[in-house]
Amino acid sequence: MIKVSDTAKKKVVELMTDDGFNPITDYVRVGVKSGGCSGLSYDLKFDNAKEDEDKVFEDNDVKIIVDKKSFLYLIGTTLEYSGGLNGTGFVFNNPNANRTCGCGESFSL
């Protein structure tokens, strides 16, 4: 399961609405792909369609879909949002990652 912090929820709802998605019925698609300075990077986008093999979660009133391949890398991850002086954006707190890069956008196992 993927958890969503309160600050991430507020930003997700704001961005989904701005992009023409409905935060009540549409999804945040979270995935993992090859790349980044640590080997794997996170992929985050909005989606209004679920594929047959997608895993669906809901936390803090945010609907999340994860493809089957990415699911194993993301179990227990918390999606957070940081708006501080050191950078603004979504942050993945992934307990499965052995190493992360300085920007927090890539990781390795």
Summarize the SSE layout with pairings.
Layout: E1 3-4, H1 6-18, E2 27-34, E3 40-47, E4 55-59, E5 62-66, H2 68-74, E6 78-84, E7 87-93, E8 99-100, E9 106-108
Parallel strand pairs: 1-6, 2-5
Antiparallel strand pairs: 2-3, 3-9, 4-5, 6-7, 8-9
Label this structure with key terms:
109 residues, 3-stranded mixed β-sheet, globular
Detailed description of the structure:
With 109 residues, the chain is α+β, with helices and mostly antiparallel strands. 18% of the residues lie in helices and 43% in strands. The protein has 2 helices and 9 strands; from the N terminus they run βαββββαββββ. It has a 6-stranded mixed β-sheet. It is globular. The two termini are 18 Å apart. The mean pLDDT is 85.
